[in-house]
Amino acid sequence: MSIAKYALAHQQCSVELFYANRDRESVIFAGVLSDLARRHPDRLRISHWLESERGMPDAAAVDELCGLDDDDEAFICGPAPFMDLVEAALRRRGTPHSRIHVERYVSLEGDPFTLDRTDSDDASVDVRVSIDGETTSVACGRSTPILDALLSHGVDAPYSCREGDCGSCMARLVDGEVIPGDGVALEPEDIDDGYILTCQATPSSGSLAIEFD
Description:
By secondary structure, the protein is an alpha/beta fold. The chain is built from 7 helices and 11 strands. The chain folds into 2 domains: about 1-105, Nucleotide-binding domain of ferredoxin-NADP reductase (FNR) module (Rossmann fold); about 120-210, Roll (Ubiquitin-like (UB roll)), CATH 3.10.20. Its cofactor is FAD. One of its GO terms (molecular function) is flavin adenine dinucleotide binding.
């Protein structure tokens, strides 16, 4: 997303985005993409692929949608099988390795789904989270990333890399305060609008309320 926004704002190139998601509700940055398409109708083309409607992307679909001209650059990000599929399709088309840029995430050591419950009960914070119109509350230690607490309590929160790079876990902070942590996925306007990366942010107030779009 950051690369596309920068290219459209600061260069004269065109951008083609092949964007695969589970369903319409899980499309991250849908509003931002609609705004970019409205402002750059001749330079931005978005091809949405929804697994709920078309199944998983296959080699034929990627071959059809991922053609590059001689001076184009390809940037790939997502789950490893998807990235491998797209990279293989580009290689079959003869795209040089130097023009294929793949962002791979390194697996975390240990069990990434296990919350380290070293915080005492009196140090925990009540986090109220809204997802798809449903609201629930979980306890989160002050040194625990919010996403870790949500997953530990069985909340089906969206995420991907858990490193602050992809933006899949982005949520809006409705109430309370957090320490934002590291991460590059948020744009300045996202931060101004109150969004946080739940895989990085930790509580800094007595209670929190967050909302996933």
